[in-house]
Structure formats: C-alpha cells, structure tokens
C-alpha cells in the first residue's frame, strides 16, 4: 500500500497532500475562503443579470456562462479540497477512482468553460466595435448565442478526458516514474497550449479594438 508521498506523486489533483499538518490546515482554510467568496460573487452576478432586463445582453450571457463554470470550481470542487486537507493521508475513501474522476472532471470542466467564456466575451466586444452593426446583429442572434454557449460546454466535455494526469487512478503499487512523468508532461503541455491559445486570441481581439478606437479618434 503506498504511503502519503507516493500517493501524492501519483495524484496531481490532491493539492493539499502535504506532509505538514500545519500546511494542510492553512491550505484548507484558504480553499474554504476562496470557495465562499467565489460562490457568493458568482451567484450575485447571475442574480443581477436575471433580475434586471437591461442587463440581459449578449455579452452578459457569456459572462453568466463563465460564472456558472466558476461555480463548478468554487461551489463544488474547492469545498472538497478544503475537506480533503483535513483528512488523514491514508484515508481509504480518498482512493476511489470514481471519486477522483468526479473531482478531476469538475475542475477540468469549470476551467475549460471559464476560459472559453472569457474568449467569447472578448470576441463579442471585438465584433461589436470593429464590425458593422448589421454584422453584429446577424452573428449574435439569440439562437446563435445559445449555440456558442452550448459549444463551450461541449468542447469542455470533449477536452476533459484528454487530461489523464488530472485523475490518473492510483493502484496498489506506485506507478513507474517514467509513466507518471509522461502523463504529467502531457497534461502540462495540453494546459499550456490551451492557455497560450486563449491568450493569443484575446490579444488579437483587444488589439483590434485598440486599433479601431485609435483610428476613430
């Protein structure tokens, strides 16, 4: 049966798996504070958009979509991390592959949809400012907006299974170092490419907006 250090090495999602009990308690409290503040803030944004008709715009629809994705992390994943940091490292309930898959899925799904929502907001502003009003109205009809939001979740559901390093199931024996390193590098590469790709598209949209504003001025 693996000890705490070997289980931590084979499970990158267990962020609170530290040898020091003081570190685990501190991180648990940090996750708890982030979970409460993140949940309240995202719920407040969703409530405001649904309560005031003037706020029910296309851009805010993408923002609400991002808030819903953040809730899967703040309201569902972070509280579990806060509790796990207080449990003993050798707790048998934490070694369930299905439970780890659930936690990994919540984290991956929330982060992916949140990144996609930020990109959709930036592209929406880009089209609104740099294109003709007729182009914006044709592109951002209610049906098209719903399809974009649905596509962000569908894309996340397709990409989450490609991150095996997030929830590689533990076994009775410690996995070979090369296999663990390869899985971790594969996961890190996918995450890096996703973040860099999103950053490049965001920069393109906002630089286009800046050029258009300067030209108008």
From TrEMBL:
Residue intervals of the G-protein coupled receptors family 1 profile domain: 41-217
One Gene Ontology molecular-function label: G protein-coupled receptor activity
Pfam families recorded: 7tm_1
Lineage top rank: taxon: Eukaryota
Record flagged with keyword Transmembrane: yes
Key words of the record: G-protein coupled receptor, Membrane, Receptor, Transducer, Transmembrane, Transmembrane helix
Localization in the cell: Membrane
A single Gene Ontology CC term: membrane
Gene3D superfamilies for this protein: Rhodopsin 7-helix transmembrane proteins (1.20.1070.10)
Entry membrane topology: Multi-pass membrane protein
Record has Cell membrane as a keyword: no
Cross-referenced InterPro entries: GPCR_opsins, GPCR_Rhodpsn, GPCR_Rhodpsn_7TM
Regions that span the bilayer: 25-50, 62-80, 100-123, 144-167, 187-209
Record PANTHER family: OPSIN (PTHR24240)
Protein name, as recorded: Putative G-protein coupled receptor 88
